[in-house]
Amino acid sequence: MYNKEPRSIITDGDRAMRKAIRLVLPNTDHRLCTWHIERNAAKYLHHSMLPGFRRLIYTRGTPETFESRWQSFLKQHINTGKRRRRRKHRRWLTKMYVIRRLWAASYLKNKYFLGAKSNQRSESLNSRLQKHLDRKMTLYDMVDHYFHCLSRIRRNESQLDCEASQSIPVATTEHQVLETSAAKCFTPSNFYLVQKEIERAGMYDTVEILETELSTKYIIAARDGRKVFEVDCDDEETLANVSCSCLKFECEGIPCCHIMVVLIRLGVAMPQCCVLNRWTLNSKSVSGTDTSDHVRSMKGTRLNELYNLAKPVFEEASCSIDDFLRWKQILQHERNEKRKRDGIDGECSHAEDHENNVEVEAEQINVQDPETVQGKGAPKRMKGFLEKPAKRRCSQCKAIDHDIRTCPKIKRRR
Fold it and tell me: What whole-number distance in Å separates Cα of residue 401 and Cα of residue 41?
């Protein structure tokens, strides 16, 4: 990843992974996969406790509200199930309470996960790869199968890119200015999410407007009066920055319905501050230099690293004319000096680069196929976490309460 830390990571409940992420990537937002949590909940908890525990996972709120809900959940289900099951419930719930900051929505409210709650994307690719894998398959066949799966994903992505560039979604709400501007900048799948937020804006009203010298604060409340949110606008003319107290845009990258209420009130188009570049139609064209031809070379690696280091510096320099002129002069000076050096000892540098490339190509490792190991029995089928175990039946009369050794029909024959 060219020495860049990821913004967020979703894993299962492995302790070694949690410890490694905490030590190596302390600035990365980490959460546990909700699919694995629900699977373990169905394994360790009574079936009557599952709906209440799911509400603890997905219901947003403050940490204080989560603590109160947790205590009421324990009081309600403290005597659920048999005595042995109760001990099992308490041990697992105690362990989950210790790591509640990694799975409860109340503690993950301010984290940056773009709406993702599970590692379903990687699991779907794993299932696709494992569908046609065989223990007798050679390493070459496995790599060929891997690239075949990737080609299918890339083909679908190219088809969606073509459809997005050649079509515009239809506006369905009465706020044509806001919806049309969103359709021109967002991809279709993300536009439909924005469209839902525009439709939900009809459920809220502007209660109060507080103006200051630097910004304007809008108090947005639901029509039933239960929830109140605050939307801050730095400048109503340019809309340089718009933020909401629900933090939906900061966490999921999609502007919330409370911001839509303010934009509809002002009668403006979708501002640039409410659009993430990664959700736009031209995200690939402005994502940086095209390094597809150099991705397997040392040149491409160095080029990407230099680009990632220079991009934030140049973005800040473009905001000021003095910084812009200073960096422009520095780059022009360095380019002229390099041309002078290339003119003097260009032949030597060319020979050195050729030798380095030969050394890199020579340092290739020949990977052989692994040794074939005799399998131990037939592979077991993976059962779903909600699938009940099959009850054992008598092979003679197909009854459940006994087996063939104690079958009454056999005893009668004897």
Answer: 29
